[in-house]
Amino acid sequence: MTRTASSPTPLRLLPAVIVALLVVLVALPVTMVLDPAATAASVERQNPSLPPSEVQSWASAAVAYAAAIHLVYAVLVTWLGAMTLRRRRWARVALTIALVLATLGSLDSATRGPGYLWWAIAGDVLHVAIIAMLWVPGSVRQFFAVATRRGVRTG
Predict the structure, then answer these.
(1) CA-to-CA separations, 150 to 119, 141, 142, in angstroms, rounded
(2) Do 43 and 59 form a contact (C-beta atoms < 8 A)?
(3) pTM above the 0.90 mark?
(4) How far apart are CA 139 and CA 129, in angstroms?
(5) Is 112 helix (H, G, I), strand (E, B) or coil?
(6) Spatial contact of 4 and 85, defined as CB atoms under 8 Å apart
(7) Is pLDDT at 147 greater than 70 in this prediction?
(8) How many Å apart are CA 147 and CA 88, to the nearest integer?
């Protein structure tokens, strides 16, 4: 990710926090693959009427679904993070919306079983940290406000 030389400290830390989030996003599908019994148990808990002969197929589908969703989200967060560091105000807003929606979506993961709960919590902590980095520090608010006053391209 690129950033301008005058980025405030919270924005200079943004790439590292996004990388930590990417690790969490990759870890969940990997955990599902490495512990197929837990994945199958989760599928059985969510679908108690599922015939035992179909559990493994559904578990494989669950892994594929989690991997696909996390991949799309990882690409989106990385791109929006890069655009935010380029002082694009729209990207800051879009990244915030994506993080809020992902946090709401993680509630689903958290209810799937104890193996998923900790990944959901880790991701949510990083989501909140990024949102705070984007909106709380006065230096960041000023960074984006100055872009508007100086006529810096923000979109």
Answers:
(1) 42, 14, 12
(2) yes
(3) no
(4) 16
(5) coil
(6) yes
(7) no
(8) 9
Helix (H) / strand (E) containing 86: none
The per-residue pLDDT for 151 is: 54
Closest CA to 146 of 43, 1, 4: 4
Chain-centre distance for alpha carbon 134: 15
State the virtual CA torsion across 122, 128, 133, 135 in degrees, nearest 10.
170
What are the DSSP calls for 135-149, one per residue? HS-HHHHHHHHHHHH
Top pLDDT among 115 and 152 is at 115
Give, to the nearest 10 degrees, the angle between helix 138-149 and helix 89-110. 140
Which positions ≥6 away from 151 have C-beta within 8 Å?
A: none
Range with the poorest average pLDDT among 14-23, 96-105, 113-122, 142-151: 142-151
For residue 40, how many other CB atoms are within 10 A of its CB? 18
Nearest to 78 by CA among 121, 17, 125, 30: 17
Q: How many residues does the chain have?
A: 155
Give which of 39, 17, 18 is closest to 28, Cα–Cα.
Answer: 39
Report helix, strand or coil for 4.
coil
